[in-house]
Design a protein that fits this description.
With 367 residues, the chain is of the alpha+beta class. It has 9 helices and 17 strands.
Length: 367
């Protein structure tokens, strides 16, 4: 027996796709995606592409809309900021959430708070079906070949059980195809992480098989259960964005339309070291989103007049000069109430981050 056989089924069925079937019956279906580069639509060859083609073919009389909000090199912290405006606000009936890979390096407590916040934002309106997708990353290989479930996936499964959500381990499906000789490793993951045409089709086929069965299954008569209490203390369920007009500015700043940075419409920009911002807000945490890259600058900041903190952000070799929407969690552990945040721009201090441009896409308050 292969060690991966002990990992169980690719699909774990826990819930009914009531919203999806209702939308299909009405002749309109909106499908949403949240995830990282493995789901990101910008290369036009990730797994949502063949899935969308299959859906359009399998449901010829249905008006199909795809809302793919996945962005490469981002995790569930950014998703918690974007889930309500970019997925719930677009009227999605069926939503796929894929962060098992990109959340791997995140501290488990923060990972739990952000993931559950994303799921609760999607579920609390009771207007969409949510399916969790587990892809594959190289850091999972040792666990998988030893028959162990990687911690990032095991943690997600706790949430899936708690909320009765279907989950599909597409990475396991593809690994088993490789082990059976149906697909080579190079066909699956040419660069070791990102599936292209053949690997993306493999991922999509696991989802297609699930949807074919789930859509055809007779509807359950029982009412959907109420949203249970959160498993995680401090889940990022309630998020709000602060208008740039509410931010006090010192030095040269301008609000400009975002041209290269997907995920935000406008940016608050300064290229002058020493420019300052002050924000007063009520909540228990704050997250900033930056248009980041090699020509970005750094910042120093403080909360409620405390000690200054200076950022020293990594910038991988694949990153461009700008165009990467990157979140920075200032804190999510404040006592609930009024707070004051201050920021000062700094020039980049390393070879990797060497510019002076600070471009902020959002200030998001955790309530």
């Amino acid at each position: 027996m292969n060690e991966t056989d002990s990992l169980g089924p690719v699909v774990r069925r826990r819930g009914d796709l009531a919203h999806t079937r209702a939308a299909l019956a009405q002749g309109r279906l909106t499908v949403g995606f949240l995830g990282g580069s493995i789901t990101d639509p910008s290369t036009f060859n990730r797994w949502p592409e063949p899935l969308a083609g299959w859906l359009a073919d399998a449901q010829p009389g249905v008006h199909l809309t795809i809302e793919n909000a996945a962005i490469g090199a981002t995790g569930s912290d950014l998703a918690a900021v974007r889930a309500t405006p970019d997925i719930v606000g677009r009227g999605c009936d069926l939503v796929f959430v894929e962060y098992a890979v990109n959340d791997l390096g995140t501290e488990p407590g923060l990972r739990a708070r952000t993931r559950e916040g994303v799921l609760r934002q999607l579920l609390r309106t009771d207007k969409c079906d949510v399916v969790i997708i587990y892809t594959y990353g190289p850091d999972m290989q040792a666990d998988l070949l030893a028959g162990r479930v990687p911690a990032s996936i095991a943690d997600f499964e706790l949430l899936a059980e708690h909320y009765g959500l279907n989950s599909i381990w597409v990475g396991l499906h593809s690994l088993r195809e490789v082990q059976r000789g149906v697909m080579t490793w190079e066909e699956w993951l040419p660069d070791g992480l990102h599936p292209e045409s053949r690997g993306s089709l493999s991922y999509a086929q696991a989802v297609m098989a699930f949807l074919s069965e789930a859509i055809a299954r007779p509807a359950k008569a029982a009412a959907r259960p109420a949203l249970p209490p959160a498993l995680t203390v401090g889940a990022w369920e309630n998020m709000s964005r602060v208008s740039f007009d509410a931010v006090e500015r010192t030095g040269p700043w301008a609000v400009q339309r975002s041209q290269l940075c997907r995920g935000v419409d406008q940016l608050l920009i300064s290229s002058a070291p020493g420019a300052g911002l002050k924000l007063k807000f009520t909540g228990r945490g704050l997250v900033l989103g930056f248009d980041f890259g090699k020509t970005a600058g750094e910042i120093r900041y403080r909360m409620d007049g405390g000690e200054w903190v200076t950022t020293r952000r990594d910038c991988p070799g694949w990153a461009g000069t700008l165009g990467w929407l990157r979140s920075h969690v200032i804190t999510d552990t404040l006592p609930a109430g009024p707070h004051t945040f201050e920021l000062v721009t700094l020039p980049g201090a390393t070879v990797e981050v060497r510019g002076t441009r600070t471009a902020i896409g959002f200030f998001a308050v955790i309530e």
